User: Which sequence fits this backbone?
């Protein structure tokens, strides 16, 4: 069974440009979360989507947006790129999202490495 | 002050040694505690998951949670060169799915 897939694997952009990152969850998983991991740091939560609805948002500016499609795949969009947006962007999928009192395992993809010049 | 503190290392030990990795945290409301392993240029992989306090063992890995001290540990017995990776702790609140991560400790197992 295929794991979480992300595309592209690497991306180079210049400041001010826009980028779209894509994620396909594990088959049967309905929840997708996005994380930003800057070199040498742990991942930072950006968004969680479940059944196409936003279920959580981290402390990121409005330049960051995301959506989930009927097939549960997801896109992360970043506008007006800054040098500080250079990072590994991780997508994680799980069966369902935000069940109170129940923590589900999140399975991570290999990430998209974004470099902003 | 970060919510979760983790020594970035690197921690270098000989093959076969017992490894101890640790995280401290400030939010006493955290209920779920996880350890992930991340190889270079890969996504994190869940190793251990513990709810509330106590110990959990899985093969060569043991996770400990001490909520009174706000301190969690991961022990690796009979360490192997293939265990060389970055180990990240992560935790979350009961009803909040957002994972809060440590910075990760780079572990090097020398043959």
Assistant:
């Amino acid at each position: 069974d295929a794991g979480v897939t992300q595309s592209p694997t690497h991306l180079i952009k210049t400041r001010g440009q826009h980028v779209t990152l894509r994620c396909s969850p594990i088959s049967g998983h309905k929840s997708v979360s996005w994380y930003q991991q800057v070199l040498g740091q742990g991942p930072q939560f950006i968004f969680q989507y479940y059944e196409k609805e936003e279920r959580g948002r981290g402390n990121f500016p409005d330049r960051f947006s995301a959506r989930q499609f009927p097939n549960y795949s997801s896109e992360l969009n970043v506008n007006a790129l800054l040098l500080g947006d250079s990072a590994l962007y991780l997508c994680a999928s799980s069966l369902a999202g935000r069940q109170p009192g129940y923590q589900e395992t999140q399975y991570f993809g290999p990430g998209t490495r974004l470099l902003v010049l | 002050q970060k919510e979760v503190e983790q020594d970035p290392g690197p921690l270098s030990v000989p093959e076969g040694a017992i490894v101890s990795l640790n995280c401290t945290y400030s939010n006493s409301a955290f209920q779920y505690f996880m350890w992930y392993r991340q190889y270079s240029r890969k996504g994190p992989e869940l190793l251990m998951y513990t709810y509330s306090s106590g110990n959990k063992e899985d093969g060569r890995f043991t996770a400990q949670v001490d909520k009174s001290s706000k301190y969690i540990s991961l022990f690796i017995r009979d360490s192997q060169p293939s265990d060389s990776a970055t180990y990240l702790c992560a935790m979350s609140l009961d009803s909040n799915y957002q994972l809060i991560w440590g910075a990760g400790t780079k572990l090097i197992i020398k043959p």
Q: What stands out?
A: DSSP finds no helices and eleven strands in chain A. The interface with chain B takes residues 4, 33, 35, 40-45, 48, 55-56, 58, 90, 92, 97-98, 100-101, 103-111, 113 of chain A (CB under 8 Å). The longest strand of chain A covers residues 87-94.
